[in-house]
Amino acid sequence: MSTRSSARRSLELANWARLHRFALTESEARLWEALRRGQLGVRFRRQAVLGRYIADFFAPEPRLVVEVDGGYHQLRRTADARRDEWMRRRGYRVVRVSAAAVMSDVGDVVDGIAAVVREGVG
């Protein structure tokens, strides 16, 4: 990929992420309320560009990516696995949670994420 097309792709990703920060799914919005403002002891960003991908939620320290998987992801298992591997090779930890789990018990999901955060920070 040329430098020009790479720069164009980066700009497109940044614009896409910016748009989607304000168009979260219901499950993403519910989880965001629990993750925002450093409530788990680390700061999360939503719709963060990491290389050629956009993470639903990203905590720079401890390099944690949280993905909320809805029905759409059932069709993307191979692509999601490739994406997760790309992130892991670059030192990110990836946690996938189902949208259904967030909607049924966001507290339980947050407890699981908090445990991963404690592992990475402590």
What can you see in these coordinates?
- The protein has 122 residues and is α+β, with helices and mostly antiparallel strands.
- It has a single domain (3-121), classed as 3-Layer(aba) Sandwich (Endonuclease, Chain A).
- Helices cover 52% and strands 20% of the residues.
- It has five helices and four strands.
- The chain has helices at 3-21, 26-35, 77-89, 99-104, 106-121, and strands at 45-50, 53-59, 64-69, 93-98.
- It has a four-stranded mixed beta sheet, sandwiched between helices.
- A hairpin with a 2-residue loop joins strand 1 and strand 2 (53-59).
- Helix 2 (26-35) crosses helix 5 (106-121).
- The protein is globular and about 45 Å long.
- The N and C termini lie far apart (39 Å).
- The mean pLDDT is 87.
What's the CATH C level? Alpha Beta
Net shape:
globular
| Residue windows where pLDDT falls under 50 for at least 5 positions | none
Number of strand elements: 4
Q: Mean pLDDT, rounded to whole units?
A: 87
Structural category: alpha+beta
Provide the succession of SSEs.
HHEEEHEHH
**CATH superfamily descriptor:** VSR Endonuclease
Between the first and last Cα atoms, what is the distance in angstroms? 39 Å
How is the topology of this model organized?
Blueprint: H1 3-21, H2 26-35, E1 45-50, E2 53-59, E3 64-69, H3 77-89, E4 93-98, H4 99-104, H5 106-121
Helix pairs in contact: 2-5
